[in-house]
Every structure is written in C-alpha cells, then in structure tokens.
Amino acid sequence: MKSYHQKFVSDHPYESSPMAEIAGFPVRPGIYDLNGATPLQNGVNFTIHTCGGTSCELLLFHRAQEEPFAVLPFPEAYKIGDVYSMIVYGLNIDEFEYAYRVDGPYCPEKGLLFDKNKILLDPYAKAVAGQRTWGIRWDHTYHARVVKDRFDWGDMPQSKKELCDLIIYELHVRDFTHHPSSGVQHRGTFSGLMEKIPYLKELGINAVELMPIFEFDETMNSRTVDGKQLLECWGYNTVGFFAPNSSYAAANEHNQEGTELKTLIKALHDNGIEVILDVVFNHTAEGNEKGNTFSFKGFDNNIYYMLTPDGNYYNFSGCGNTLNCNHPVVQQLILECLRYWTINYRVDGFRFDLASILGRNEDGSPMNNPPLLRTLADDSILSNVKLIAEAWDAGGLYQVGSFPASGRWAEWNGRYRDSLRSYLKGDSWNAWDAAWSISGSGDLYGGYYDNTHSNYAGYNSCVNFLTCHDGFTLYDLYAYNDKHNEANGWNNTDGANDNRSWNCGAEGETDDPEVLSLRRRMIRNACAVLMCSRGTPMFLAGDEFGNTKFGNNNSYCQDNITSWLDWRMLEKNKDLFEFFKFMIAFRKKHPVIHKQLPASVCGMDSIHTHNLNAEETDIPRDARTFCVSFAGYDKEKGKDDLIYVAVNTFWEDVTITLPNLHGRGAWHLSVNTYGDGNGQYCYPEGQEVRIDRSFVMRPRSVAVFTGRDY
C-alpha cells in the first residue's frame, strides 16, 4: 500500500504529459514545493532553490562517472521565485546519479561564491554517492541518488514513552560492533547493531542514542600518526542531512538507501527500544575559507552560513563554519529534515549537537526567542518526538538551565555531570550541587507542570549523564588523573582538561588489587547514583562492562581498538554488567525515582535531602556524606513507593540514621556498592536485608534502601 505522500506525488497532474524537450529528455515544470529529487510513476521531479544564483543546470551521470552524460539547463519559465523545478521523463532511477551547477556573482568579501563550473550536491539529497566504502577518500565531486521508499512499517504506532521513563544508551554504530570480539556477522553496521538487540534487552535500556548517522566524510582531515591512519570517525561533519551514512549499511542499497537503517529501527521498536538521533545542524563538512565547496556554499553561501562583515566564517562550532540557523531558508531545511526522519524513519527523538548555535541570530548574537527553536517546539509532526539540546556551543554560550523554549526542549545536564563527577571522587565542597542534581536539579529546571506542552517542565527537561562520547569512559574516569591523547597527533593539547577524574591511586593499567577493587566500587557508585537520580539517565555504551579508551578523552579520530568496544571485557567484568542490569531494573520498578507521584500515605515529602540523620534536612555545604529520599503513592501497586539513597564519599565508615516509618513500615537494604564481602552488591525484590534505622556506610560507597511493610 502506498503512503499518502507517495500517492500524492504519483497522482499529481504535472506528471501527466511532457511539455518540452531538453537535452533529448521530455520535461515539464515540476512540483515547486517538493524539495529534492522525487520519483514519480514515469519520471523524476527535481526541485532546487537559490536566492543569489542567476541560472541552474541539472547534471545526470552514469554511476561512478565524473563527466555527466546529460546537462539540462532549467528554463526561466521553470522558475518561480527562487525555486527551480522540473519533471524529467523516461529516467530509470537505478541507472543515474545527479548533481547541479549554479551560476551567479563571485564576490567572496560579500559572501558570494557562485561558480558555474562547480558541481553541487543537492542539499535535500536522500542518498549520497561515493561514500560507500569506509575510510576511502572520495576525491571526486559528490553526486546524489534518487531513492524509492518501499519499506513497510505495518501498523506500528508511534512510541508514547515519556522522556523521564527512558534509560538512554549512547553508542557509535561502527565502534559498537567493529571489534572482532563483538561476535556479529556484519561488524560496524546497522545490521551488526541489530544483531546486538538481545544484549540491549538483557541490559534493560529502552532507548539508544545513535551518534551521527547522516552522511558524513570520515576522511576529512585524515592523516597518519605513528603509522596509524586517523579518520574523523565520530561523524560530526555532515555532508547530507537527509541521507543515511551508506558505509554503515552491510549491503549495497543503490536507490533504496536507508532500508537497513529502517529495518534496524523497526526491530528496536518491536523490542521496546526508542531511537534518538544525534544531529549536527551547527556546521557542515564544507569548512571555512580553505574548505571545499560541494553544496551549500555553491547554492547560497551568504544564506546558509553566518558570515563576518568581510565575508569570512563565524566559527561558533569550532569546526570552521556555522550554519545560519535562523534564516528562513535554513529554518525550512532543518524543519523538513527533522520531519523527514520522523515520518520516513520513525525516529523517536533528536539530540542537537552544540544546540546553542540554533539560537544565534545571523550576526552571531544570542536571541531571546529564536524562531527556529520555537518552530521545532510547536511543529505538529514533531509534537511527540523528544527534542534534546546540548545547551552550549564552542563560542562560549552556555545555556544549561536556560535554553530557550525549554518548556518543550530537554537539555543534557552538564552541571549534573560536573558536580557529581567532582563529588563522587571526594570533592566534598560540591555537596550542595550534587544533592540538587540527584534530586532533579530543581534549582535549574524547577519541577512545575507546563500546561502548554503537558509535561513536567522540570523533570522532563533534564538528561543526566556522567559520561558520553566526548570525554572519559566511566572506567577511565577512575583510572586516569589526566587525559592521554598523544595518539591524536596534537601533542596532547586536544580534548578537555577539566575531567574531574581520579585514578584511585595508580595512573592507567595496574595489577594492584586494592586499586582495581576501588575502581570497580567507584563505577558502581556512579551507576547507582545515576540510576537513582530524578531526571532521565544516559550512559555511554561499554560503561556497563568497564570499557576503556586507555585515557584518550577525545577519540574522534581513532578508528581502532581505542574506540572499538572490546566485548571480551563483558566476560571479564561480568559483575559490573550484572550491577548495571540490576540498577536499570530497579529504576523501572520504582517510578518515584523518575516522576512525581501522588503524596505518600506515610507522609514523607516527595523529595528531600538529608544529613547523616534523616531528621536533619539541612546538609553542610562541604558534607562528605548526604542522603536523598523520594516518596510517593504508586497507584498501580496500591502502596507507597519509598526510596532512600545514601552517598558516602568519605574514606572512613560513617553511620547514618534513616527516617522513622510509623506503624508496620521498615527500611530494607537493596543496594550496597561496598558489598557484603562475598561479592553481593544487590538484593532483588523479596531478598532485601531489613535493617534498623541505623546503618553503617562503608568508605566511598553508596547504599539504596526501600521502605515497605515488614
């Protein structure tokens, strides 16, 4: 059965018969509001726009050929406003690739870079040719392919999970399964990831956040350091916003690009796992004044990019150029792109890299109410997808807790990362910030109900994390005091210096059993706190089994064992995996941790912070130990849901006193990261250890208690 959109274009009256002939092809004016190249029943609709260009040509190529076999100039009669559109009949989409040439004024100091000899990639291309083989530099011009969507989604409904109900697992498609130890048939691909779905289900996560999967150029700035080829493998240098990365597909998908990715997404959905894409709308792979012109620069350089008065590029991205996101033309491209991925790939959410750039005006200044952010927040197609901002940029704009349109947008909580990293390693002066963060960062996000968008603007605005692709892995956070990025070739000058890490007594690899034991405890501490914090938890793939990058905190260029997950560590550190699995399940069983419930019957406050004695709710600013309680009435279970989290960063034993539960209520120990001496750190439901109100916290440990009847 055709989708409504497919039926609309195939039945459109413009395709009924040609009106003219150009370069031997029958043609007629096209569908002007249908951007990109769209297959019809007996032709292809090509639509492109340029504001400053004076003429445009459509180029048709045989596959992998540099010279076009046909050049079709757009007649002036086929232009309305700034839009050129033409239906070309008699084309077999399996037999050609296409691109454009645009003529116009060349005046770099005014930002005009038109060149009638430049071959340009369609900004709306659904597939990019020439990127199929990973790591092979494409020295030719980019061409696009026409894609026919034959994928059947069936009657799969859109996911209705709230953001606060998610446990997000950030991963890089290639790194996740490319190591030989992954055991998959199609290593480093969408299919390889699909082979790991049983593992993801066992772990218990219910959302994956995929690092960039739009077509990108991993060979950009490639170089050799110490005999190793370095590639920009993370994907934060977009070539085409509408095209999936063809090198992530296990099989050739000519003219059906995206099928393998759609199959993966459907399989994840069928297993209860949402898909969030990391999207990069802050810059492109065209770079600065020394960069290439392969698409946007050639169509309208002064529209797509923020330019200084002398025609150079503002660099708020740190990557050479900055997209001019609040120009109406760029707004339209971003909106259509997100709609496309939502409709055609059934994506559940988007994480926006360096999202503060999306709120900058054309001159680079921050805007109070950026039109792009408001447009995305209120768009009807995007109304149920998650919008998550990395609420800062490389130009110094830091908006954690104040990102515009935050009633709809969520944020990566950078303050949670910083305060908890500091506190957990023993920086006691961060106690207040750490307590605020665990209890939901109410000082940043409030916790009020937002009637406009029907969600809790506080708790649904906060994505908590301690690790992500950018920085140390969780193991390295407790194995290195300093970054070790020498292999990147920049004399260890790249990557963040503010890591708030601690090596537990030895830098890097060690055989010291006491150091190794402490490191594992610190990892358990971090996991327990993250999973018991109000907000949405996110962690980096491999953290659950102690994956290391050997101290490299900026592995963007390391397409090797530095970045590839070593699945042998899963067996070696099986106890860490089991702990993560338990904590994820524990969070799911206790909704009071991640959402506001009706008032508890026992009378405990919904959220509270405590000193060593639960009756003392004011904690010292430099407390080495504090506790956080969550309480509410779980209607589904018909009883109170009571959780008490105790965090001891002191290197000595500390005695805490829990709240008094009147009547038949008692506290039970569910988690003790120090362990019982026999390797037990978790107590499943029904096997918890009942305790008196007094409990001795062991050094550098976290304990989690549940309150219930005897």
UniProtKB/TrEMBL annotation:
UniProt-listed CDD domains: AmyAc_Glg_debranch, E_set_GDE_N
EC number: 3.2.1.-
Record-linked InterPro entries: GH (IPR017853), GH13_cat_dom (IPR006047), Glyco_hydro_13_N (IPR004193), Glyco_hydro_b (IPR013780), Ig-like_fold (IPR013783), Ig_E-set (IPR014756)
GO biological process, alphabetically ordered: carbohydrate metabolic process
Alphabetical keyword list: Glycosidase, Hydrolase
Ranges of residues in domain Glycosyl hydrolase family 13 catalytic: 170-587
GO molecular function: hydrolase activity, hydrolyzing O-glycosyl compounds
Homology family: Belongs to the glycosyl hydrolase 13 family.
Protein name: Glycogen debranching enzyme
Lineage of producing organism: Bacteria, Bacillati, Bacillota, Clostridia, Lachnospirales
Gene name, Swiss-Prot/TrEMBL: glgX_1
